[in-house]
C-alpha cells in the first residue's frame, strides 16, 4: 500500500528484509551448537529451551527492525502495537469468528472425534463422567502443561512465527506497494521455507531415508503454504494478530483434517459440508468493518483499512 501515491518502503528492500527475517529465524535455532559453538544440549528439555530463547531473540530483532523501517508517526505503545495487529478493541471478534471459520475445515475431524467419544461412552456404560475419568483428564492437562513439546507446538512456535511472518512481513510488503494478494502468497512461501529445517531432523535425527524424508517434508511444506496464505488473509482482513494466532494454535492441535474414516461415511459428508461452509463464509466472517470501527487516518499497513 502506498501513501500519497508513493511507496514508503521500496519493494526490493521489503523483499530483502522479509527473506532476511525468514533466514535468520531458522539459522538462529542452530545458533547454540553451530554458530556459537556451544556444547550440544545434554537433554531434550535443554535443547528445546535453547530453541525457545533463540526464537524469542530472532522475533524481538525482527519486531525492532520492522518498527524502524516502517514510517511510524507515533512511538507510543498503542500505535506501535497496532502496527503488528496487537489490539484490544474488537478482540473477541478477532478470536471467535476466525476460530469458527477455521473449525469448518475440521468438520470431519470433529465429527469423527465425537463418534469415537460416543463409542467410548457406550463401552463404559455411560461412565465417561466418572470421577476417575475426570481425574485422568486433569492429570493429562497438568502433564501437558509441563511438556516442552506442548509449549513448542501451542505457544512458542505459533506466537513467534505469527509475529515474524505475519506481523512484521505483511506491513513491510504492503507499505512497499505490493498488492494484497501478492503479500498473501509471498509470506507463505517464506513461511514454508522456514520449515525446511524439518528435513534435517527427519533425515538425521529420525533416521528416515532421503526419499521418505523428502516426501514428509514436501507434504509439510505444501500444508504450511496453504495455511500461511490463510493466516495472512486473516491478518489483513481483520487487522488482528489474534486471528491467525489462534487459528495457528487450533490447526497445530488438530493436525491434518480428516477426509475419510472407514465405516463412517458421515465423516466425509461432514468434511465436504465444512468445506462448503468455509468457502461460503470466508469473506462474510472476515469483513473488516466487523473488527474495527475506524476508517480514516489509517496507516498504510493497517489491515483493517483494506478491503472495506
Describe this protein's structure.
This protein has 13 helices and no strands. It has 308 residues and is mostly helical. The chain has one domain. The chain is globular, with a radius of gyration of 21 Å. The N terminus and C terminus are likely disordered. Its EC number is 3.4.26.1. It catalyses: Hydrolyzes the peptide bond -P2-(S-farnesyl or geranylgeranyl)C-P1'-P2'-P3'-COOH where P1' and P2' are amino acids with aliphatic sidechains and P3' is any C-terminal residue. Pfam families: Rce1-like. One of its GO terms (cellular component) is endoplasmic reticulum membrane.
Structural class: mainly alpha
How many runs of DSSP E, i.e. beta strands?
0
Quaternary state of the chains: single chain
How much is the radius of gyration in Å?
Answer: 21 Å
Largest beta-sheet details: none
Distance between the termini: 14 Å
Share of β-strand residues: under 5%
* Unreliable stretches: 1-6, 295-299, 303-308
Q: Can you write the helix and strand succession as a string?
A: HHHHHHHHHHHHH
How many distinct folded domains?
1
List the total number of helices: 13
What is shown here, in short?
This protein is mostly helical and 308 residues long. Helices cover 69% and strands 0% of the residues.
What brief labels describe this structure?
mainly alpha; disordered N terminus; disordered C terminus
